[in-house]
Amino acid sequence: MASHSNKGKGIAEGSSQPQSQPQPQPHQPQSPPNPPALSRYESQKRRDWNTFCQYLRNQQPPVHISQCGSNHILDFLQYLDQFGKTKVHIHGCVFFGQVEPAGQCNCPLKQAWGSLDALIGRLRAAFEENGGLPERNPFAGGGIRVFLREVRDSQAKARGVPYKKRKKRKKRNPMKSHDGEDGTTGTSSSSNLAS
Fold first, then answer.
1. How far apart are CA 75 and CA 49, in angstroms?
2. What b/e string do you get for 47-68 counting C-beta neighbours within 10 Å, with b at 16 or more?
3. Cα dist. 63→20, 54, 76, 92 in Å?
4. pLDDT tens digit sequence for 58-86
C-alpha cells in the first residue's frame, strides 16, 4: 500500500541529502504553570477577606483574626457605610417611606442590605477556608444575623417597600396518583387485570 506521507522518502530512495535529526534541547527550568483564573466570586471573596484582615490590623491595638468577635464585625460593617451608595431616609425626612421620592434630601448614603448580606456570606466562607473552625465562625453568629435583619427592615421602611420573604415552592410528590387524561383515576380495576 502506497503511503501519502513523505516521511522517510529520502532514505528509501537512496537520496544523498542528509536528514535533519532533532537536536536535544538544553534543559531549561520551567516556571510553574499559572494557577487557574479565579471566578468573580472567588476574587471578590479574597478581596473582602484581605480588606477585613487589614481593618483588624489597623485597630488600636491590632486584632488577630483568632480574637475577632461579632463586635469587630459590626464595627467593620458600620465603617463600610461611609462608602455606601444607597440613600436611606431617616425618620424626620419628608421622603421617609416613599417609594419614589420627588426631590433631593440630606439623608445619608449607606451600604445596601443585600450588599452587606452577600459580604457576610463571603467572609463566613473565607474564614473557614483560612483555617477557622465552623463552630467558632464569628460571621455566623446570632448577633450578625440580628444586625442584618434590622438593616433589611429599616431600609425597607425608609424606602416604603416592605421586604417580602419568598415562599418556598412545594415539591410535587411523584407518588401521588393523578387523574388520567381520559378522566380515569390512577387506580386499576379488576376488569383490567389479565387472568
1. 15
2. ebbeebbebbeeeeeebebeeb
3. 67, 10, 12, 38
4. 999 999 999 999 999 999 999 999 999 98
Give the cell for residue 96.
Answer: 421617609
- Measured distance CA(25)–CA(19) in Å, rounded: 18
Q: How far apart are CA 89 and CA 155, in angstroms?
A: 8
How is the chain split into domains, by residue range?
39-159
Q: Is 53 helix (H, G, I), strand (E, B) or coil?
A: helix
CB within 8 Å of 125: residues ≥ 6 apart: 45
pTM: 0.64
Residue 109 phi/psi, 5-degree rounding, is -90, 135
Range 29-51 average pLDDT = 84
107-144 pLDDT, tens digit per residue, is: 889 999 999 999 999 999 999 999 999 999 999 999 99
Top-tier CATH class for 39-159:
mainly alpha
| Strand ranges inside 38-129, DSSP E | 86-87, 109-110
